[in-house]
Write a structure and sequence with these properties.
The chain is mainly alpha-helical. The protein has two domains: about 1-55; about 55-85. It is built from four helices and two strands, in the order ββαααα. It has helices spanning about 20-30, 35-50, 55-80, 90-95; strands at about 1-5, 10-15. Helix 1 (about 20-30) crosses helix 2.
Length: about 100
């Protein structure tokens, strides 16, 4: 489950943890004098930092970004052609065909 706290710009997530993992987190939080949520946030921050320095993941992200930009350009061109002042070649050739007389 995910909800948005619009005032603070946070997302609230509900996660499932094994009882053993929860118990361990609870012990760590007590020893550190923090909360389970703070411990999870710290773990996620560390995970994200590790992923930021992953060269392979960075290369994959660059490829995805390039694909997104190419698709965006294609869609922009399609919209521009759709609403252009002059008809495209395909539209013009259809309009130039003589209509067959109906009997």
């Amino acid at each position: 489950m995910s909800t948005t706290d619009k005032a603070k710009g946070y997302k609230t997530l509900a996660i499932r943890l094994d009882d053993d993992v929860h118990a361990q987190l609870q012990v760590i939080a007590r020893l550190q004098e923090t909360s389970i949520a703070a411990e999870i946030q710290q773990a996620i921050a560390g995970h994200l930092e590790a992923k930021r320095s992953d060269k392979e993941l960075g290369s994959r992200a660059a490829a995805v970004l390039e694909s997104i930009e190419a698709e965006s350009k294609q869609r922009q061109d399609a919209i521009a052609n759709l609403f252009a002042d002059k008809p495209s070649d395909a539209t013009a050739s259809k309009a130039a065909r003589p209509k067959s007389p109906r009997s």
